[in-house]
Known about the structure:
By secondary structure, the chain is α+β, with helices and mostly antiparallel strands. The protein contains 29 helices and eleven strands. The strands form three sheets. Strands 1, 2, 3, 4 and 6 form a five-stranded antiparallel sheet that branches. Helix 10 packs parallel to helix 16 (about 345-370). The protein starts with a helix and ends in a 22-residue tail after the last helix.
Amino acid sequence: SLAGVHAHAWHMVHTAAGAPTRLRPPVMALNQELQRQQLEILELKRQIAELQAAPREEELSAVERVVSALDPVLHAARDGMAALDPVLHAARDGLSALGGVVGAAHASLPPQAPLAQASSLLAPLLDNSPIIAEATPGVVGLQLGAVGLACLSSAIATAQDGGEAPYEPGANAYNPLAASAFYRERPLLVARRLCSLAYLTSAFTTGVLWDWLVRGKLLKDDQYTALKAAEPRRAKEALMLCEQLGPTFIKLGQALSIRTDLIPEAYALELRQLQDAVPPFPSDVAYARLRTQLGVRDLSQLFSTISPSPVASASIGQVYKGTYKGVAGGGGEVAIKVQRPGILAEIALDLYVLRLLTPIQTRLQNAVNGVATAQADIDVAVQLVDEWGRGFVAETDYRLEAKNTADFARSMRARGLDAVCAPTVVDELTRDTVLVTEWVDGTRLDRDASPDVPRLCGVAINAYLTMLLDTGVLHCDPHPGNLLRTTDGKLCVLDWGMTLAVPPNLQYSLLEFIAHINTEDYDSIPQDFINLGFSPEDVSVERLKASGITDGLSFAFRQLSAGGGPKKIAARVEAELKERYGDELTGPELEKRAQAELLEAMEMQLKSEGVDVKGVTNVMEEMSKRNRELFSLPPYVLYVARAFSTLEGIGLSIDDDYAIVQECYPYLSRRLFTDRSPRAKAALRAMLGLEAPTGEPRVAPAADALPWDH
């Protein structure tokens, strides 16, 4: 059609010398051409209607649906042509003015001028001959489908969220059902994000699949040597990928950096660099948000100085250093935290997409590991995404973060822990997306060379045990960048955006568990597992005892108590294995012997439960399935493990034999001696190895709701 319109214009210029008056109605000719095309479309619809009863009914009805779907596009094209009328009128006037010039030029040309030759070559276009002689329904459907695909691609590429989110910020605001309803009405927005993720991750995913599928599975490499050898390089790629994918995936990378049970160690080590190295957003955007939120035209009304660029940038917001003028002279240096624009909408969309992709990712991961996928695997993975989602959404509520910060400082003062603090919040400048606190001068605890750092590690352990077992509000982001040694020798805990409530029932269950572990009372530990939420309530104590969990705990606790961190633990384990299997064996040989003994123990356990081992094709898979039924990992354990692994790492950097378990005993002793509740008394007796008084029953835990049951 465009070729036909162009041919008409060319024809009018070519014949202008002979008949200049024919240049005057070009707009009329264009409108007639458009009407003719629309008549052709109507005729096409009529032909489709006649062919409905033909044998190819399904194909033709599909074409009809495409044509119907393109009606809005055709209407838009008509409106676009109407909007071009003024331009076409101007073109007509311009052509009329050029008529005389073209006529003079044409008169001076010889009979066989190139213009005449070109005219003969363009004869098919001048006749408006179709490129495809016969417009069959299949051809028309293909053409219209291509047009529809182009229109859909354009719509997806331009989809915007407008800053809207399916829920408000807050600790309990995350709602996957509300998100599903919200994004079902915005499919183009979801498609845009899926396309973006597919594009950005394609090279990384292809490389991993090549190493696993081609170089591993197809080439019969049972040890997946290529996949493991590429882990350090792939881990660096994963780090860069998280930064490219945006704030949600940066937070996800931070959460995964402590989950070596989910990702390889090499990936975890690289992802830990995400803690305080996130690209900032433009400062002019941050300043505009500050002016809007604080209600001032110029920031100089509140701050005498403010840094031109952020001094720190995180996934949710970034921090500037300024000097607050204060109220009644109460100002000073402050940290000004500004939230990224549209961060909640971005997080909500990414969490929704992650919930869509999690079942696929779980199946692929299990396939890589050679394990069948059960629905329980998918459910657990989705629950993990939801748990991360609750934390991410809570971090966008700066008023909640201000409250958490002030509550922690107050609770530490009330308990006489003067060596630990949090920044003082400037309440009059607290807003939904702006948080201002006093500026704290200090250095990261893991980078400070002061001689009192070991003491501060002990202070940090006391602080986290106090949160876990006393105040009941646990700081959930204890990476090294959030632990500062102040210039006056105190420990300052930063970033209170994400916390977890620890109810009293759980606190007492933890005390009982620690007491039983300390005295090696392994008969009581299966009940502790149920009390702590490590096992479902319908699992019996006898079944837990038969699982052999107590043997594993005994071994782990013995190694942790000896100290030295992962390196020395690995050396001690290897020494024990050599003593068991022979000094002449190498590391891989010891591993094979240990695996063979483990497999034998599993087979014996299955036989003791009446399972026909010969009928079980994969004993490891069967045991993995049973363990999923017996054990689960409550979310609070992840945060506790993250806190203590961070503190242990700092301690080991100073003392190679540092044992974090030993550091916990002073606090636990004080805690048990000062608590007069029956359960605390029972835990203290257990810690001291004393029997309960005659006739006094063991105190059963109350049925308080655990924080992850909501």
